[in-house]
């Protein structure tokens, strides 16, 4: 322990400004590596989830970003014409998220109502921790509407409980019955950016059938069209829908297959990854060079003390163990800081009552965060191994003899 303290205080930290610079660079490299790894993991999860849409005959709608929509001119009669046209001629998946309602719950979070039709529900393949899946064959205003609730609402509204609310989509008082509970951290990835996710821990999923759509208001009609998915269709039929929407609502929509959406995403995402990876790689090279140079310079400045330690029994194998211990402590501290920052970021969603991104885990840290931390740990191991082995090789070349003590 004394010899480790000697090396830390007299060798490694002798030129503390350089050490501080190396620690800052190491933190930046670790955080960039963590962010990149987590983004790649999230993207991979998104690709797996959305793969069900990546097939022939499936087209995803989105509002043309270059258009100038005038939503004030849209009337409910016009949107009903569009949905009647869709119901008569197409099979489509509809999911409209983000309708906020005030509903008492243990965590005092805003509750998000998500409307989903049967085709979209099949595509999403939600997993449940309790209860049964949704039933879409209910009679509006005559039966209780079966719903799914997120994990964050399960204690307040367990399976079988009733919820009475004013539905934001219909502006009517509705009676909901909890049919099932989603697994913790259930999410949906964005069609156009698979690395982006919306979490459903504080959501209620309400099944939408044709009767419900007819009774719904303008907001649900318009929001439902934004990400509507045509199934078992053709490009020509998708263009017919585009023309019908533009003619009735004045909205210009694009209809792309999911492979085209992936390609659009990859065009800017891969370039961003290349830039981040290049910066991280340069930082890691600088860290390795700086760590080796700082250690060797400090040893040369303390050559007498270093020689004495070698003469009284310090072997190169023990020296290697000391180096690994020091860099292991250093990397552990940096990794702990990255974890703390991640935990603060995740827990911040709970503190801000942001129900869309609140997740369950240690301080909200979820599986992809832990996987990214493990990847950073592996990178640190490689960097530490490189620094120690190259440093030991350089030290062995330093001429050590009793003469340096005179």
Task: Give a description of the structure.
By secondary structure, the protein is of the alpha+beta class. It has two domains: 192 residues, no CATH class; 201 residues, no CATH class. Helices cover 53% and strands 16% of the residues. The protein is built from eleven helices and 13 strands. Strands 3, 4, 5, 6, 7, 8 and 11 form a seven-stranded mixed beta sheet that branches. A four-stranded antiparallel beta sheet has the order 2-12-1-13. It has a two-stranded antiparallel sheet with strand order 9-10. Strand 7 and strand 8 form a beta hairpin. Helix 8 packs parallel to helix 11. The longest helix has 44 residues. Keywords: Membrane, Transmembrane, Transmembrane helix. This is Peptide ABC transporter permease.
Key features of this structure:
406 residues, alpha+beta, 2 domains, 7-stranded mixed sheet, 13 strands, disordered C terminus
**Largest β-sheet summary:** 7 strands, mixed
The overall pLDDT, averaged over residues, is 86
User: What does the radius of gyration come to?
Assistant: 30 Å
The total of beta strands comes to 13
Order of helices and strands: HHEHEEEHEEEEEEEHHEHEHHHH
Strand content: 15-25%
Which parts are unreliable, with pLDDT below 50 for 5 consecutive residues or more?
401-406
Count of domains: 2
Fraction of residues in helices?
A: 40-55%
Category by helix and strand content: alpha+beta
Distance between the termini: 28 Å
Give the helix tally: 11
Overall outline: elongated
Protein name: Peptide ABC transporter permease
Keywords: Membrane, Transmembrane, Transmembrane helix
